[in-house]
Amino acid sequence: MTKVLIVGRPNVGKSSLFNRLVRQRRSLVLDQPGVTRDIITGEAEWWGHSFEVWDSGGLMWNTSSIIFSAVQDHVQSACDKADLIIFVMDAHLGLHDEDKKIFKWIKDKKHLLVVNKVDHPQSFKSQLSEFYTLGSDFIQTSFEKDENIALIVDWIIENSKNSKFKKIEKISLLMTGQCNVGKSSLCNLILKKNRMVTSSEMHTTVDVVDEVFQYHGKKYEILDTAGIRRKSKRLEDLEKISSAKSLSYFEKSDLILLVMDGQKKFSRQDARLFTYCMEKHKTTILVINKWDISQVTKIEMRKTIRQQLRYFPDIPCVFISAKTGEGLGILMKTISECVKKNSVRISTSALNKFFIEVVQQAPAPVYGTRNVKFYYLTQTKKTPPSFIIFTNEPKGVNSSYQKFLIKKIQEKYSLKGIPIQTTFLKKS
């Protein structure tokens, strides 16, 4: 599929164009420089044609920021891989010296110049004339008003490869955790390349960054998210928005990798994040990172986790170092096992034969003056495994009996560590 990279200085509207091309609010948009840092990818379909769009971080040379330097390296790498480049500039600011530097960077590639924020063309005649000095035609547009987006799409289609896009099912892995626990470094380790921007600065990752890889014949999509901190009035707008967006991706993921810092104790915020995963009924692996420099033993760490998560004793826990690669094989094996458990399907007849045996072991509770009767259960199509149990009194099944049934299902079908969901319905 044709790869289309959007480049430009900070705050010229690159992410706005990206969102309009993929027709969803995929990339964060905020009126401040440095919001986009990683390469954000999305699939676009227009008029029977498909192409891949890449949003990139703003390019700046007059800064000593470690993050902006890393962004520049990532954009340079993306330029080498892209088929087409859209170079976005700002009509309000006119042709900037750094625009000229970027143009020298991309002029030998197939490119399109786009001048954004032309809300009233008659008012921008003098500023627009400057852009002709680059020696190429350009499209003047206003992304906010959706003006001339169709002309940009026309150019992409006209210069695209003749290839059809075929959607392939992917298993989504969501990387979450607090700030600076090494989520992006761990993503790079799994992908075996420097895909995510990393630094020691807080909140280096601000958007949800995705990348596809294969492992043992299966296709995975890894989603790197912004660090999530405890709610506070002191949080900046960008932090609040990026944290909220990270949480919104929980619904779309198949498996959660909850990363924590092995140098620190299992905190309340780690416990809150884990509880959120369980509330969403998402299979979760605890990934203890920075284990190569931790002063705590595995026995001590596991004991602390068990104390904090006493209601979830079987949650898979992996110790790893994103720096040295220690524990990566165990992590990938654990991911494969969890994916297999997530996709378990049990026939209704086998389930009910087992269910009769379980109910005989522990009689159903009494609700008021009536005995709770169970008729049968069946598995739904949800992932992780979810079951509907038909009864005469759904309200009569207390939480302790629900936990007993879940535990028995987990033991029988080797589903320990998987957050099984049970729903009790009244048989009509």
Low-confidence stretches: none
How does the major sheet shape up? Answer: 6 strands, mixed
Mean pLDDT: 83
Spatial separation of the terminal alpha carbons: 52 Å
**Taking Cα atoms only, what radius of gyration do you get, to the nearest Å?**
26 Å
Mind sketching the topology for me?
Blueprint: E1 3-8, H1 14-22, E2 40-46, E3 49-55, H2 66-81, E4 84-90, H3 97-106, E5 111-116, H4 125-131, E6 138-140, H5 149-158, E7 171-177, H6 183-191, E8 209-215, E9 218-224, H7 237-248, E10 255-261, H8 268-279, E11 283-289, H9 298-308, E12 317-319, H10 328-342, H11 348-361, E13 366-367, E14 370-371, E15 374-379, E16 386-391, H12 399-412, E17 421-426
Parallel strand pairs: 1-3, 1-4, 4-5, 5-6, 7-9, 7-10, 10-11, 11-12, 16-17
Antiparallel strand pairs: 2-3, 8-9, 13-14, 15-16
Commentary on this structure:
The N and C termini lie far apart (52 Å). The strands form four sheets. A six-stranded mixed β-sheet has the order 2-3-1-4-5-6, with helices on both faces. The chain has helices at residues 14-22, 66-81, 97-106, 125-131, 149-158, 183-191, 237-248, 268-279, 298-308, 328-342, 348-361, 399-412; strands spanning 3-8, 40-46, 49-55, 84-90, 111-116, 138-140, 171-177, 209-215, 218-224, 255-261, 283-289, 317-319, 366-367, 370-371, 374-379, 386-391, 421-426. The radius of gyration is 26 Å and the shape is elongated. It is built from twelve helices and 17 strands.
